[in-house]
Amino acid sequence: MAKTVSKNNFEDSITQLDKLVSEMESGDMPLERSLELFEKGINLTNECQKLLSEAELKIETLSQKSTSKNNNQITGVENEQ
Question: Dmax over Cα atoms in the chain, in whole Å?
């Protein structure tokens, strides 16, 4: 089965995962449908992990810039005294 997950935002992907889990937990489906839902779930999980990794990298980058700026301000103040 081809990857059919569109570029969702994180919240949409989590909502879709919740729906997939609920449907799979009902237990009233053929094996083929279960496998199809499982594959969709894996693809959504991978997309969520990618989005989380990108957010984490952005947070780290912003934190480093902020820390660097604060360190420069502190160093500048100490050098003036």
Answer: 76
Span 28-47, pLDDT tens digits: 899 999 999 999 999 999 99
Q: Which residues fall within 8 angstroms of residue 5, CB to CB, at 6 or more apart?
A: 13, 40, 43, 44, 47
Structure tokens that stand for 50 in this block: 């990618």
Written in H, E and C, the secondary structure of 9-65 is CHHHHHHHHHHHHHHHHHCCCCHHHHHHHHHHHHHHHHHHHHHHHHHHHHHHHHHHH
User: What is the torsional sign of CA 36, 23, 50, 9?
Assistant: positive
Q: Please tell me the pTM assigned to this model.
A: 0.69
Q: Distance between CA atoms of 58 and 39, rounded to whole angstroms?
A: 29
- Domains contained in the chain, CATH given: 10-80 (1.10.287.1040)
